[in-house]
Amino acid sequence: xxMLTRWLESFRSLRRPEYRAAWLIALAADTLQIAVFPMFVExxxxxxxxxxxxxxxLLLVKLLGWHWAFLPSFGAELIPGLDLxxxxxxxxxxxxxxxxxxxxxxEIIPPGPSPTSRA
Length: 119
Known about the structure:
By secondary structure, this protein is mainly alpha-helical. 61% of the residues lie in helices and 0% in strands.
């Protein structure tokens, strides 16, 4: 439960609406592919699974721009069995990870000039 509330706080801290939409799309696609499609769709080479991957890939590129993280994710989704790993969510995290700020870490301030002596 604590992890969920932390994730929701991080999700709310995303400044750009494109990042939020990309997260929701990636989570929805991975949830469908892990929980729903194996129950109703035949095998790893199902057309609906491949169509979902193409649509998700195009949407993420449109929202976030091209990034190399999308290429291995798309390839992993085409391999039967490997699509049970949330690769779209991992790719979106990799692309948007700079937006997540960890406020518990102290800010490191570079050293300034040394104080003058009062002699």
